[in-house]
């Protein structure tokens, strides 16, 4: 096992890797390097003087499945159980989700009865699309776009409205370019294994069962029917608690320490160059985005750098708005907007519905988050590094007025531009990952790749894959 391990990047992936290293390889010296002045990456929270909690990145974590259960175990280990804010399947934020189509909000079907009803924007009940899906032939393609997959399995309307919007909500990306195999692995595996998405999902095709210890919070989540959860002081509390746990274990965390280059060492290890000097590592875990890591690699690793350069990413503007009073016309999680309706506005999250505990104290207010840009950022707003935040704010307020009828000036408005924040898994992404894995293994590269650029963009995915990366090195 390595004696000295350097983890580059202190987002949630880097933090999870460092924590797992300190647990399963306690004899190793672990150093965590971060270029910015804080840990947590895209997990960012503003806590206002009035008591409001405003999220600028992920605002909730799913509690189901193996990866969700795994994160709940981590929450228990770092002492955050008392901070959990559960959102159950019975809550309006789970049951009510909308699309904005044709100038109005359209509630998505969420019950068996609604599936048999004709609901806009669909021209016929979704039951028709679902009924025919199991008898359709399975695709013979190794991979295909999300839009092509949904068109074949469920019809053009489901692809144009539902799948398109889903890709914009999760990846801020274009369903016609994103890979179904990499973006939605359970759907792909279900169709390939059973010839039907519905049949495969019913039998749990490809599902990995949790085989770890059961904690009280896991049992509580199952008993109470949690769909997802947040934290009382915002999602930034998660990396803050992970950082505190690392420092308590003696892990060195170096902020303001950008890595400038990685070099192979004569002993088979790796030299990590920073502005402050050179660190010798037996192994390096990189939690940097693929596009950031590539230019840091040495000439000898050029094939790896070239492969990493093929993994694209998009920028997203996040505009937090807080209005006086209860001003939403509906209750629910929020609404998404198909690209055919409005490219640059991805959707609006109704934060006060899902986490009313995060509203400011005193008189009632309404918190919203407008998501903008993604694959459409440059075309709509120009260079993410040069765009005017005032312009983004005005466009967000216009969207809220047009789509929700909310006028007037917000009590609070915060604009964040997250450049290259969401990786885009294009068609064939799986093959690119296989080539990367084969090349690094055959050349004995002392480097493990972690983070959202590879196997999932959610908080759950990043934590789970970071831990598995550590275990692969150990075993």
Blueprint of the fold:
Layout: E1 4-8, H1 12-24, E2 29-33, E3 45-47, E4 53-55, E5 61-62, H2 65-77, E6 84-88, H3 92-95, E7 97-101, E8 104-107, H4 112-115, H5 126-132, H6 146-154, H7 156-171, H8 180-183, H9 185-194, H10 197-203, H11 216-224, E9 226-231, H12 237-248, E10 252-254, E11 259-264, E12 270-274, E13 277-281, E14 283-286, H13 290-293, H14 302-308, E15 312-324, E16 334-336, E17 345-349, H15 351-354, E18 365-374, H16 377-381, H17 389-404, E19 412-424, H18 429-442, E20 447-449, H19 459-474
Overview of this protein structure:
There is one protein chain. The protein is of the alpha/beta class. It contains 19 helices and 20 strands. Helix 1 runs parallel beside helix 19 (459-474), helix 9 (185-194) packs across helix 10 (197-203) and helix 14 (302-308) packs antiparallel against helix 18 (429-442). The model has no long low-confidence stretch (mean pLDDT 95).
* Contiguous uncertain segments of 5+ residues: none
Q: Determine the N-to-C terminus distance.
A: 9 Å
Strand content range: 15-25%
Counting DSSP E segments of at least 2 residues, the number of strands comes to 20
**Strand numbers in spatial order across the main sheet:** 8-7-16-17-18-15-19
For the sheet with most strands, the description reads: 7 strands, mixed
Overall mean confidence score, pLDDT: 95
Assign a percent range to the helix content.
Answer: 25-40%
The coarse overall form would be globular
Radius of gyration: 23 Å
- Number of helical segments with 4 or more residues: 19
Structural class: alpha/beta
């Amino acid at each position: 096992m390595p004696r000295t391990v350097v983890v580059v990047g202190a987002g949630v992936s880097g933090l999870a890797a460092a924590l797992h290293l300190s647990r399963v390889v306690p004899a190793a010296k672990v150093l965590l390097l971060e270029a910015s002045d804080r840990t947590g990456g895209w997990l960012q929270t503003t806590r206002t003087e009035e008591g409001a909690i405003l999220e600028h990145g992920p605002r909730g974590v799913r509690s189901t499945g193996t990866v969700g259960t795994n994160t709940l175990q981590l929450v228990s280990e770092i002492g955050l159980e008392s901070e959990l804010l559960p959102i159950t399947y019975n809550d309006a934020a789970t049951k009510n989700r909308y699309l904005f189509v044709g100038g109005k909000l359209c509630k998505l079907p969420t019950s068996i009865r609604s599936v048999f009803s004709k609901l806009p924007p669909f021209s016929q009940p979704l039951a028709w699309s679902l009924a025919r899906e199991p008898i359709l032939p399975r695709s013979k393609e190794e991979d295909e776009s999300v839009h092509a997959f949904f068109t074949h399995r469920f019809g053009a309307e489901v692809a144009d409205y539902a799948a398109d919007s889903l890709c914009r909500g999760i990846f801020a990306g274009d369903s016609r370019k994103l890979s179904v195999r990499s973006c939605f692995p359970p759907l792909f595996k279900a169709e390939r294994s059973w010839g039907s998405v519905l049949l495969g999902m019913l039998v749990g095709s490809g599902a990995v069962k949790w085989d770890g210890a059961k904690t009280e919070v896991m049992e509580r989540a199952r008993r109470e029917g949690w769909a997802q959860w947040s934290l009382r002081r915002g999602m930034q509390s998660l990396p803050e608690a992970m950082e505190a746990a690392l420092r308590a274990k003696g892990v060195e965390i170096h902020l303001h320490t950008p890595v400038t280059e990685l070099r192979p060492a004569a002993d088979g290890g790796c030299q990590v160059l920073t502005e402050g000097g050179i660190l010798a590592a037996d192994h390096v875990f990189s939690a940097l985005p693929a596009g950031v890591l590539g230019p840091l690699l040495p000439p000898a690793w050029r094939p790896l750098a070239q492969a990493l350069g093929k993994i694209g990413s998009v920028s997203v503007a996040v505009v937090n708005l807080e209005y006086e009073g209860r001003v939403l016309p509906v209750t629910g999680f929020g609404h998404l907007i198909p690209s055919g309706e409005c490219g640059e506005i991805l959707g609006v999250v109704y934060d006060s519905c899902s986490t009313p505990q995060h509203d400011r104290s005193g008189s009632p207010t309404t918190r919203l988050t407008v998501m903008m840009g993604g694959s459409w950022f440059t075309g709509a707003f120009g260079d993410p590094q040069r765009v005017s935040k005032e312009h983004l704010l005005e466009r967000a307020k216009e969207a809220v007025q047009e789509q929700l009828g909310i006028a007037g000036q917000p009590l609070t408005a915060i604009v964040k531009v997250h450049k290259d924040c969401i990786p885009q898994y294009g068609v064939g992404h799986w093959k690119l990952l296989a080539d990367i894995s084969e090349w690094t293994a055959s050349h004995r590269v002392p480097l493990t790749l972690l983070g959202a650029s590879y196997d999932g963009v959610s908080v759950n995915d990043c934590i789970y894959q970071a831990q598995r990366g550590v275990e692969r090195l150990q075993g």
